[in-house]
Amino acid sequence: MAPSTISLAPSTATASATESTKLKTTPTPTPTQAVNTLTAPLPYPPAFSPLLSHPHHESTPVIGTEFSGDFQLSSILSSPTSLQHLASLISHRGVVFFRGQEITPSQQRELVQSLGELSGKPATSGLHIHPLTRENGKDGDHISIISSEERIKYENARKERERVRELGWEKGEESQLASVGWHADITFENVPSDYATLKVHTQPATGGDTLWASGYEVYDRLSPSFRAYLETLSAVHNADRFKEVAAARGHTLRNHRGAPENNDLELTAVHPVIRTNPVTGWKSVFVNRSFTKRILGVSIDESELILNHLFRLVSENHDLQVRFRWARYKDGETGDVAVWDNRSTFHTATDDYIETGGVRSGDRAVSLGERPFYGGQGERSRGRREALGWRGVERIY
Fold it and tell me: In this structure, are residues 111 and 197 in contact, taking their beta carbons and an 8 Å threshold?
């Protein structure tokens, strides 16, 4: 489905309202450009949208929307209008939750690919293949199994090898801060993710929540002068640690990972520190503790100061986070689903159930978007609070 040729079918709304839902794109770029083809941000889904007719509520004022289980994501897979409205809703709200879903792994793949296509992803960007994905897996290359049991196996193997973690901890030491897990998916790729979806079908009796945080709100909490400075900087993202994981598991890394720009084993990319989301036109901080290693153009000491400050804004501000408690279903097939925009959010798992013998497992599909960019000033790129007309958090700058 080529983004530059899509025209959405009319809904029951007026002609003028219908016109606003049409995809606005430019001609498809060459593979080396990997740019989003939207010529203007998508509006927030209109009140008449069939999607918003289903029971839902905002999880917090800043981030998250939740739909109840009477709505099945699989029911809109053949509706470009509803899918584009969903893409816009996810990008504006950061993450959207759906209770009691029966969607299959193949439908998850179809869902995230369609969300990207209907919001201008490059034609060369497909679904991501994780570097650690084994070939000929039962669910194919594009589904990552999120498994606490696999994670424990890796941790045990790593400890036995007594490797020194690259963050500089001494041999045998582990951070006792759960906040070290905050990340956005696959930012080590030259063309990283736009949308991702996770369905958790095996859940412990208690615990195992996932948290998301808003990169938009992190940006808005910076002083204007500091924002302006960060907008001039780029940072290095790296995932060499996956090479260690692959060695512990006894298999090789995948070197063709869903886009021509991601066909190497370097697992290193340079991205702007402040990124514009093309779907909303809003600015977001785009560094994360798991993959961002260094800011370019400053000393290593200055880089660590800046990065640690940004990481703390994510982890220490609970009022820009949402915590989602996955429900437990008896049939082993039904599960809650989260769909999020990796360009403007961070997330982290909660491993509080592992010591009690709990097991958590789910299926994740990740779409690839565009090369990250900073869009400058004006209507095309501004802060979320400015766009919504909200007053800033009271501070003296």
Answer: yes
